[in-house]
Automatic annotation (TrEMBL), chain A:
One example GO MF annotation: ATP hydrolysis activity
Domain ABC transporter: 2-208
Alphabetically ordered keywords of this record: ATP-binding, Nucleotide-binding
Gene3D superfamilies: P-loop containing nucleotide triphosphate hydrolases (3.40.50.300)
Protein name: ABC transporter ATP-binding protein
Keyword Ribosomal protein recorded: no
Name of a matching Pfam family: ABC_tran
Listed GO CC annotations: plasma membrane
TrEMBL record, chain B:
Protein's name in the database: ABC transporter permease
Record's bilayer topology term: Multi-pass membrane protein
GO cellular component, one term: plasma membrane
Keywords, alphabetical: Cell membrane, Membrane, Transmembrane, Transmembrane helix
Pfam families for the chain: FtsX (PF02687), MacB_PCD (PF12704)
InterPro entries (alphabetical): ABC-4/HrtB_transporter (IPR051125), ABC3_permease_C (IPR003838), MacB_PCD (IPR025857)
Domain spans labelled ABC3 transporter permease C-terminal: 301-411
Region entry Disordered, spans: 204-236
Localization annotation: Cell membrane
Length: 208, 426
């Protein structure tokens, strides 16, 4: 599913970042570990097509990201990639359900509604649908962030430090949720973190 | 979910912001539409009311006052003229028609005008019910006056001296009887109570002779009989009470039958008689010219406010776009293109200006409605609540263009939006 080779990236005024090659089969999970400042988030954005590599190859599914123009890249990312942010990102003017519908896109239809209801039921958000995002508790926001990363059934889910600032119990719950949901929507999952508590949950690991 | 819905939700998510940036816009729009409507309708009504007449002949004084008093029924008359002096004009070859009017009384603030039925027909007035006056103290009432005063056929109307309502000096002895009510014509007719010249003369002749009370009834009866005959006569031509050399009228409203009339008569009257002539169209133009410069000033101020309001929309959008930078970056992650983000900002600006325009327009009309009740009670002129005019559509176009430009400029940063950096930055 994910295949990178000799991936390099340089910020305008920064040092050259080189990343180890990644080979991740479909529906598999991968943990990328590393201390702060080694370019973990940069790698995540490269995989999401939000940054363009200086050199190297990056393929997701059958698509080489470097072959896409800007517009195609936007479309590809919207359809095939889901992001779970370290700092949750929502549209403040919309309620919970509307945030989810926005992520699903206009063509979601009835199937989309079924998918949405099943997902919010699993995540325990069914009673929060018409609330503003800002009215949710921390834990509910965390779960909504996961839902937003996965509701459109992407090929690849990228999670950036999903367990930062969580106690052990919640850390475990979040990782399990991510893995379960990735399995249900048949998505590959890459988690990027400096949280070594997560290690034991993944067989497939890369250290930066 | 459509972008347009998101734009709408974004807009209403900060009501205080919304109200602030809409306020200026509404203010300028309401000012412009109010002033445009006011000058339009005032001008239109004045024009309509003076059309039947080319010239007014009355007592010497201010020509504008003469026109305002005798044609538009706003001001007080300059005085009276002798019917005897005016008569030669009525039969003058250059004159198509000349209608004498006489007044001095009011009923609850509405003017009682003595004239001929021809006066009503020059304004195209038609009866809604009843009949025209043909006996003394018959009176025909304009639509607005009838409605306001609650008059019906057969109602008795007692005039009071002067043109302004007072508590004293009512002609108790001589009530007018309402015989007809006119259809609404949106002219001065609506606000008038119209009777025959003789009725007005009668009620006043009567007053003048008040001390000779023994003769009063007698004289009065005589006049009644006489007037009955005279009226029958009156319907055929305009030879008024021949024996009445001392009869006075307020003014004579003249329509020329020949362009030569315009050239010769005003000068002849002003120089050769004790009367003055005034040309309504000229005086009204002069009046509108004065109004016009006021209108221009107010419009200038309002347009300046409009520019400032466009600036405020720009600043408000710029601010919200900065505040929502992360949300815009998130939309990019969701697969929305830069063009769609621009569309989102433009839509929000467009909503804002449409809403502001609608509110401003409504406020302008509310102003007209409030002002109308004032002008109606003060001058007998009411303003209509009209659908949007062409000028207002143009104003809407200008507003939308300005707001689109403002929104576009405010949204320019989305082109340089660095999604990765925005999402990473705390």
């Amino acid at each position: 599913m994910v295949h990178t080779q000799d991936l390099e990236f340089a910020y305008p005024e920064g040092a050259l970042l080189q990343f180890p090659d990644i080979q991740l089969p479909t529906n598999e999970h991968l943990l990328i570990l590393g201390p702060s400042g080694v370019g973990k988030t940069t790698l995540l954005y490269l995989l999401a097509g939000l940054l363009l590599p200086k050199s190297g190859q990056l393929r997701i599914g059958d698509t080489s990201l470097e072959s896409l123009n800007r517009k195609q890249l936007d479309q590809f990312r919207g359809k095939h990639i889901g992001l779970v942010f370290q700092k949750y990102q929502f549209i403040g003017a919309l309620n919970v359900e509307e945030n989810l519908r926005l992520r699903q896109g206009r063509k979601a239809g009835k199937e989309g509604k079924k998918r949405r209801m099943a997902l919010v039921n699993r995540l325990g958000l069914q009673d929060q649908l018409h609330k503003k995002v800002s009215a949710l508790s921390q834990g509910q926001q965390q779960r909504l962030a996961i839902a937003l990363g996965i509701i459109h059934m992407p090929d690849l889910v990228l999670a950036d430090e999903p367990t930062a600032n969580l106690d052990n119990d919640n850390c475990e719950k979040v990782i399990n949720l991510l893995k379960e949901e990735a399995n249900i929507s048949k998505s590959s999952l890459i988690i990027i973190t400096h949280d070594y508590r997560v290690m034991k949950h993944f067989d497939n690991r890369i250290e930066l | 979910m459509r972008m347009i819905y998101l734009a709408f939700r974004n807009m209403i998510s900060k009501p205080l912001n919304l109200i602030l940036s809409m306020l200026l816009l509404s203010l300028s729009i309401s000012l412009v539409t109010f002033v445009l409507q006011l000058s339009d309708q005032m001008g239109g009504q004045l024009e309509k009311n003076i059309t039947p007449f080319d010239m007014v002949v009355g007592a010497k004084g201010s020509p504008l006052q003469l026109v305002l008093a005798s044609v538009l029924h706003i001001d007080n008359p300059t005085g009276n003229i002798k019917l005897k002096e005016a008569r030669p004009l009525m039969n003058h070859p250059f004159v198509k028609y000349a209608i004498p009017v006489s007044y001095g009384d009011n009923y609850k603030g509405f003017r009682i005008l003595g004239t001929t039925s021809e006066y009503i027909s020059t304004y195209g007035g038609e009866l809604a019910e009843g009949k025209f006056f043909n006996r003394p103290f018959d009176i025909v009432v304009g639509a607005a006056a009838a409605e306001k005063l609650g008059l019906q056929i057969g109602s008795e109307v007692v005039g009071s001296h002067g043109l302004i309502e007072t508590d004293f000096g009512a002609h108790d002895e001589h009530p007018y009887i309402v015989t007809g009510i006119l259809k609404r014509s949106n002219t001065v007719l609506d606000q008038l109570l119209i009777t025959s010249l003789e009725s007005v003369w009668d009620s006043h002749a009567h007053e003048g002779e008040a001390p000779k009370s023994s003769e009063e009834e007698h004289k009065h009866d005589e006049e009644h009989e006489h007037d009955d005959q005279d009226h029958a006569h009156d319907n055929h031509d305009h030879d008024y009470v021949e024996e009445d050399a001392d009869r006075e009228i307020t003014s004579l409203l003249v329509r020329f039958g020949s362009p030569l009339g315009m050239v010769q008569l005003p000068r002849y009257i002003n120089e050769g008689t004790n009367m003055q002539s005034a040309l309504p169209s000229f005086e009204v133009q002069r009046l509108l010219g004065l109004l016009g410069s006021g209108v221009k000033t107010v419009n200038g101020i309002a347009l300046a406010i409009l520019l400032v309001s466009a600036l405020s929309i720009f600043i408000s959008l710029l601010k919200t776009i900065r505040e929502r930078k992360r949300e815009l970056a998130l939309l990019r992650v969701y697969g929305f293109r830069t063009g769609q983000l621009l569309y989102l900002a433009l839509m929000e600006g467009l909503f804002l200006s449409l809403l502001g325009f609608a509110l401003g327009w409504a406020l302008g009309r509310l102003g007209i409605a409030l002002f109308s009740s004032y002008t109606e009670s003060e001058y007998g002129y009411s303003l209509l609540l009209r659908p949007p005019s062409t000028q207002e559509y143009i104003l809407l176009g200008i507003t939308l263009c300005l707001s689109i430009v403002a929104a576009f400029l405010a949204a320019l940063p989305v082109f340089n939006l660095n999604v990765a950096k925005t999402l990473t930055d705390e």
